[in-house]
Structure formats: C-alpha cells, structure tokens
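Cast an eye over my tokenised protein here and flag anything odd:

===
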Amino acid sequence: MAHLSLFERRRRRVRTALVAKAGGRPRLSVHRTNGHIYVQVIDDSAGKTIAAASTNEKGSAGSGGTVAAASDVGKRIAERAKAAGVSRVVFDRGGFLFHGRVKALADAAREGGLEF
C-alpha cells in the first residue's frame, strides 16, 4: 500500500467509513472530471446500479464543468432514485473534497428528496 496518491488515500478512507455506516442503504457515488460530473445510486449488496445521471447526457443544462450543471445532475439523480424506490442513501464523494461542484450536486439531491 505504499506510495498511494493523496486522492487514493482519501478515497479509501471515505469508502471504509461509509461501509461501516451504510447499514444496507444504497450508495450515492460521485465522480468528477474537469469536463463532466457523474453520479450513480449503487446497491452494493446486489452489485447493481439503481439509477445514474451525468452532464454527458442529452439535454443536460449548461456545460459539464459548472456548479449549475452539477446542481442539475443532483436534481435528476434524486428524481430517478425516488422513481426506483430509493429515498435514503449514503453519500460517497470518493476522493473529492466536499465543495464546489460536489457540494452543489449533494445539496440539489437533498432538495430533490434524497436523505443522507
């Protein structure tokens, strides 16, 4: 485990804490790149993706690398998760810091009705 990047160490730390606290709830996993943001609701016990949304989809608002676009993705994932019967999740920010686009996505998902 030597020579892991700061990002990878942070990702492992976050995931380990989540698994301990999840209590069987699905995981809302976020991945951010410079150009886009992707989010999935994952049922780890079944190994299946329940719902997904990203700025890469047709009809997504604005360019992918903005806070407004991340907020739009947060609203869409909340709608899709609720349609799939999921209302409580654990938030997996991966190795990304909780600010900017990641925070905007989380706040929009909460406003959309997801609990975490």
Remarks:
- The first strand starts at residue 27 and ends at 32.
